[in-house]
Fold each of these.
Amino acid sequence: MDGVEAAVARAFREEWGRVLATLIRTTGDWDLAEESVQDAFARALERWPADGVPRNPGAWLTTTARNRAVDRLRRDAVGAAKAEEAAMTAPVGDAAEDGDDGDGDGGDPRGDPSGIGDDRLRLIFTCCHPALALDARVALTLRTLCGLTTPEIARAFLVPEATMAQRLVRAKRKIRHAAIPYRVPPAHLLPERTASVLAVVYLLFNEGYAATAGADLVRTGLCAEAIRLARTLAQLMPDEPEALGLLALVLLHDARRATRVDGAGDLIPLADQDRSRWDRAGIDEGVAVLDAALRRGEPGPYQVQAAVAACHATAPDAAATDWAEIAQLYRQLARFVPSAVVELNRAVAVAMADGPGAGLALVERLEASGALAGYHLLPATRADLLRRLDRRPEAADAYRQALALAATDAERRYLGRRLEEMALEPSAPSPSSVHNSGRS
Amino acid sequence: MRYLLLIANDESALAAMSPQEGQEMMAGYAAFGEEMTARGVLQDGNRLRPTTDATTVQVRNGEVLTADGPFAETKEQIGGYYVVECQDLDEAIEVASKLPHAANGTIEVRPIWEM
C-alpha cells in the first residue's frame, strides 16, 4: 500500500464515524449521509495522490461529503429546498470550509447545550436507542460508527447478508418514521441510555471474544472495534466513570485473549494459562484506566467487573490471586446487577478464599433457589467443590449432571475428563479451574 | 410528529375492579388528560367499549361479512387510545409512560403516517 492509500485507509478508520455523524446531523437523512461520505472517500482516493493528503483529512472529508450531499439533493427536484437548508446549516462551530475543523476531540463545544460536542456521541446514542431491537443497535453501530460494510457485519454475526441488510434498512426506517431524536439524551434519561450504549459495546466485544482462533477475522476483529468504541466513549464522556470502567474491562480481557484457547480450540482455564504471553501493555493500560475511573468514587458494574479482571491479570501466578478481594467484588457486583450467575461466581471466589466447604454452602443455597436450573456451570461448580472435598461419588454424580447440560463439545470434553478422574486417582488439587467468571 | 397511543390491558381485570379502584383509574386518566392538554400534547383520545361490543367487518367477493368480537383473540385488548403531538419518540415514550395503564397494561406507540 503506498503512502496515499495508507492515508486514506487511516482516514477511513479515524474519520468515517465522525464525518458520517456530522453529515447525518446536517442532512437529517441517514442514507444520503452514508452515500455522500462514501463518495467523499472515493474522491479522496482520486484527489489525494495528485493534490497531496490534506493537512486535516477529517475536515476535507466533511466538506467534500457535504458538497456531495448538496449535489445529490439538487439533482433531486423535491430535494432542492432541503439542499438550501443543508448548505445553509453550516453547523455551529464547524469551520470545515476553511479546512480548520476536525479536531473534534473532547471539549469541542459545537453549540450543544448538553456540553457534549462530538457528533459521534449523538450518533451512538441514536444507534443504541432502546426503541430499536438489540441486534439492530449492534448492526447500526458497526455500520455507522465503525464503518464496517453490511457483508462484513453479516459475516461477523453469522447471518445471511440479505438478513443483515434488511435489519439495517428497517432500523434506519424506524429512526426516520418514529422520529427517534438524533441527540445525546437529556440528563434525566442519560443514565439509562448510557447503560444501553455501554451494553452494545460490551456485547460487540463478547461476540469477538467468543470467536475462537481460526474463526473469521471479521469476527475476531469485533474485539478491536469494541475497544476502539470504548476508547471513543471514554474520551467523549470523560465524566462517566462507567465508560472508563468498560474500557478497562475490555482492555483487561483482551490482554489475555491469546492464551484462552489451546490448539484444539478448547478453553484453557485461567489457572493454566501461560501468563508470560499476556499482553503486559494492555494490562497496564487497563489498570491505569480502571484506577482513573475508581478515583471518581462512583462505582458501577463495569468498574467492578474490570476490578475482578484486574485481580486476575495482575496476579503473578494463579496461586497469588487475591480471591478474598474477588469474592468481595462479586458481592458488590451483585448489588448492582442482582443475578444468580454473579452469585455463582462469588461462590467460586469464596471457595478459593475460605475453602471449598464455604463455597459449597453458597452453591447449595443457589441450587435450592432453583434460579439456575438447567445451567451446566451450576452442577459443574458443585462437582469441582465436592472433588476438592474428596467426596468423590457425589462429585461424579454432579459431573454427570453437568455433562448432560453442557452445550459445547469443548465443555463436554473437559467435564468428561474430570468424571474419569473421579474413578481413577485420588483427587489432586487443581482448584481454580472451576473459576467461571464467564472469562477463562 | 403525531403518535397514536394504543392502550392495551386485560379487560376482564378491568371488569373485576371494585368501584373504588375504578374511580382511582378514572382519576388517573383525568389527571393525565389535564397535564397533557396543558402541555399542548393531547389532540384526541377516547375510552373504548369492551371487545364484547366489537364487530369485525370484512368484504369478500362483494359480500359484507360481519362477526361478533375483535379481530384477534389476545390476552390484552385495546381499551382506549390517544392521539398526541410530540417533539420526537422520546417525548412520546415519556407521555405514554404516564398513562395509568402503563403500570399494568401495555401502551403501543405508533407514529401516524401523515399523508
Amino acid sequence: MIIKGKAHKFGDNINTDDIIPAIYLVTTAIKELGKHCMEGIDASFPSKVKEGDIIVAGKNFGCGSSREHAPLAIKGCGISLVIAESFARIFYRNCINVGLPIITSQEVCKNINAKDDIEADLLKGEIKNITKNKVFHIDSFPPLLQDIIETGGLIKWYLKGRIFSPKK
Amino acid sequence: MTITEKILALHCGEKKVTPGQFILADVDIALGNDITAPLAIEEVEKLNKKNLPHPEKVVLVSDHFTPNKDKESANQCLVVKKFAKKYAINNYFELGCGGIEHALLPEEGFIYPGELIIGADSHTCTYGALGAFATGVGSTDLAFTMMSGKIWLKVPESMKFIYSGKLREWVTGKDLILYAIGDIGVDGAHYRAMEFRGEAISKLSVDGRLTMCNMAIEAGGKSGIVAPDETTLKYIEQFKIPKSKIKVFESDKDAKYVDIKEYDVGEIEPQVAFPHLPSNTKPVSQAGNVNLDQVVIGSCTNGRLEDLRIAAKILKGKKVHPYLRTIIIPATQKIYLQALKEGLMEIFINAGAVVSPPTCGPCIGGHMGVLAKGEKCLATTNRNFVGRMGDKESEVYLASPAVAAASAVKGKIADPAEVM
Ligand code: SF4
C-alpha cells in the first residue's frame, strides 16, 4: 500500500481530548467525528487536510482515554497515516484494530517539516520525504500484528479464523 | 517472573512468558460503557451473531453521560441496554443500579486476584489494586473479546515502585501516585506494568490502592498492580468467591524490572497537579495563590467511601467559600447510601456543597459541572488536559479529597492542615 500526502506536524503528548473532545463522543459516525478532528488544538484542522495527508507528531501520541473515536476521527477527516516518535499504547492498538496505518520512528519524525510531501510504502517499510529528497527504512511489525494488519483489522482476523492459528 | 508475567502466562496456557512477547490470552471479565460499548456493539451486530460464548464475562455500565444528558447520549445508553437484553448479559448496570464502572466492579465482586480483565476504558487499570492484571483497550478489542473470549497482548516490562516509611497526616494514595507521576512523567511508565510495593502500600487501604492503580495510565502504564496480601483477601471475603478461583501470585525474588523507583513517603506532602498535565505536580505548600471557581470530589479515582469520609471530616461544621461551587459525587449507589447512613451527606449539604448522583459527568466535561472560559477547578479526578472539564480556556488542578475539601473552604488551593 502506497500512501502519499502532505505532512501536518504536532508536538509531544497529543491526547485523545485534543484529537476528539469528549462532547463529540455521542456518535460513532466516522465522517461526523472527522469534522472535529484535532479540535482540541486547532479547530480549523479538518479544513486544512486533503485526502491522503499525513500526521507527524512527537512522543506519546494519543495518550489519555481509550476512545476508538480518536483514530476514527483521524481517518474520518482524510488522514491516511500517522507517524510519531512514540504512541500511547491503547491508541496504538486501536489503530492496528481499526486499520489506521501508523509508524513509530524518531528519526523519520525529526526529518519531516510541516507541509513536506511524503510518500510511504508500508509493505516495503520505506518512507520518502520528497521535499527533502530523503529516504528512510523502518522495521516491520511483529508477526502477530502484521498478520492482523494484513488481514484488514481485528474483526476480519477473527472472522478468518486466524485466532486458532495465530502467528507468534 | 513478576506477578504480571505469572498472571499472563496462566491465561495463555504457557509456563513462562517474557516481556515483549505477543500472546493471545483468555479474558475473565470484559467491560464496556455508554461511550465505548456502542462501537463494539456495532461490530458484533454487523456479524449477525445469535449469541455470545460467555455473556457472564461481559459487564456493561452506562456511567459517562448518565443521567442521560441529551438525546444523543440517551440513544447510546439505549443501544447498550438493547444489546444487553438481546445477548442475555445480566451484568448490565442501569442508572440507579450501579455507578461509575471502576468503583462498581470491585464493589460487586467481579475483581479478584489472578484474573485477567480488559475494559474499553483507559482506567480499567484500576483493578490491579486487587492483584489482577487489568488493562484498558479499545472498542474493537471489546467486540473481539465478547465474540472470542480472548485478547491479543504484548507482555509488558515491569517497573517497581517501592514506597517505604510512614505517611504524613492528610497524605493518601492519591498523593503517592501523583508524586510518582510527577517524578517519572506522563510517559515514564510507557507500556509498562507498574508494581506498587513497600511498607506504605502494605498499610494502604483497598480504596487507596484502587486510587493508585487507577492513575497508572496517567504515567503511560499498561497496568498497575499491588500483590495480594491480607488486606486484599479480607476485602474479597465478602463476595464468597470459590477458593479454587483465586490465584494469589507474588513476584519472584529474581524477577526482572526495567526500573525501580524508591520513595520515602515521610518526605511526601499532599500533592497538586497543575494544568495541563497530571505530571505537573507540586507539594501543596508550594501551590501559591490559586483562586478557584469549582471543586469536584468524585470520579473513579476518588469517589469511594474513604474519600467521602475524609472530605466530610474536613467540611464538618464549616462552609465552603461563597464564590465557589462544590460538587460531591459518590461513585456508586452503595457508596451514596452508606455515606447517607453515616451522616456525611448532611455535612456536605450543610457546608453548601451539592451532592450529585453517581456519574462521570464533570470529569470529562460532559455535564453536571462543566467549566466556563477562564474558570479554575480543583478536582479529585485523574486528568487535567486542556479543556478536559469544559471550556478550552478553563483550568483543572488534580489533588486528593482532603486537599479538595480544604480548598473548597478556603476558596483557593489549600493544605488540609490549614483548615483543621
Ligand atoms: S470518572 Fe472520569 S476517568 Fe473515571 S471512568 Fe468516568 S470519565 Fe473516565
